[in-house]
């Protein structure tokens, strides 16, 4: 059986958990990460040398990097609705997944660590303000995209891009900061909240 290593509060672990719900895939979960099993021990580093969650083991397969794991599961289980077989449609989904992991995540990291995690290493007011501006600017990019597509990130159909970006939208909406009024994003989050996977692993009170 598929095994997922990582704590359920991790935004990246939640991507994988939500994907499993969409596929209807049973799994076992081991809780690793802050507050649970330490990820800097040899046992875990042998699976992921970065010492980060999530990691999956699926028979002989071991994988890390949450977006890669989600893509692997969708392809393995024949879910072309989540990750299309058509090269152009697939590239669009992966483009937004990569944007989430790189551009969007980098914009919110300092503000999130300061405002939500209360990190003592993230107390510079100027850096916090700059991160908030960048975070809101990137969310504006998503707002514009949703205005074009009208429903989900890449078009009328729900895909893996909506899992990874849905979690990011939820984090943005819950962070204690000033944010613009983005009606398309608000409607998008409400739409996602109708899905079982979102209710269980995204709009579940976790930031």
Strand content: 5-15%
Net shape: globular
The CATH level-2 architecture of the largest domain is identified as Up-down Bundle
Terminal Cα span: 29 Å
Which fold name corresponds to the CATH topology of the largest domain?
A: Glutathione S-transferase Yfyf (Class Pi), Chain A, domain 2
CATH class of the largest domain: Mainly Alpha
Average pLDDT, rounded to a whole number, is 97
* Largest sheet entry: 4 strands, mixed
Number of strands: 4
Helix/strand-derived category reads alpha+beta
Q: What is the CA-atom radius of gyration, in angstroms?
A: 17 Å
Approximate helicity band: 40-55%
Structure annotation, total helices: 8
**Low-confidence spans:** none
For the largest beta sheet, what order do the strands appear in spatially? 2-1-3-4
Give a written overview of the molecule:
This is Glutathione S-transferase. Keywords: Transferase. Residues 86-207 form the GST C-terminal domain. The protein has helices at 11-23, 42-45, 66-76, 87-115, 125-149, 160-174, 183-192, 196-201; strands at residues 2-5, 27-30, 55-58, 61-64. It has 207 residues and is α+β, with helices and mostly antiparallel strands. It folds into two domains: 2-76, Glutaredoxin (3-Layer(aba) Sandwich), CATH 3.40.30.10; 87-199, Glutathione S-transferase Yfyf (Class Pi), Chain A, domain 2. Helix 1 (11-23) packs parallel to helix 3, helix 4 (87-115) runs parallel beside helix 6 (160-174) and helix 6 (160-174) packs across helix 7 (183-192). The chain is globular and about 45 Å long.
């Amino acid at each position: 059986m598929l095994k997922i290593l990582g704590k359920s509060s991790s935004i990246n672990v939640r991507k994988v958990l939500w994907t499993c719900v969409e596929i209807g895939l049973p799994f076992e979960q081991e809780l690793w990460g802050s507050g649970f099993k330490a990820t800097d021990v040899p046992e875990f580093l042998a699976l992921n040398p970065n010492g980060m969650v999530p990691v999956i083991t699926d028979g002989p397969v071991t994988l890390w990097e949450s977006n890669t794991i989600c893509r692997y599961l969708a392809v393995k289980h024949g879910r072309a609705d989540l990750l299309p077989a058509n090269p152009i449609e697939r590239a669009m989904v992966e483009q937004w997944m990569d944007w989430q992991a790189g551009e969007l995540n980098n914009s919110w990291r300092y503000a999130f660590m300061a405002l939500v995690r209360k990190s003592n290493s993230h107390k510079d007011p100027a850096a916090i303000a700059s991160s908030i501006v960048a975070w809101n600017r990137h969310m504006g990019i998503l707002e514009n995209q949703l205005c074009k597509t009208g429903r989900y990130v890449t078009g009328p159909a729900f895909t893996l891009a909506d899992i990874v970006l849905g979690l990011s939208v939820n984090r943005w909406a819950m962070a204690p900061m000033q944010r613009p009024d983005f009606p398309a994003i608000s409607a998008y989050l409400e739409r996602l909240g109708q899905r079982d996977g979102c209710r269980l692993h995204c709009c579940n009170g976790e930031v």
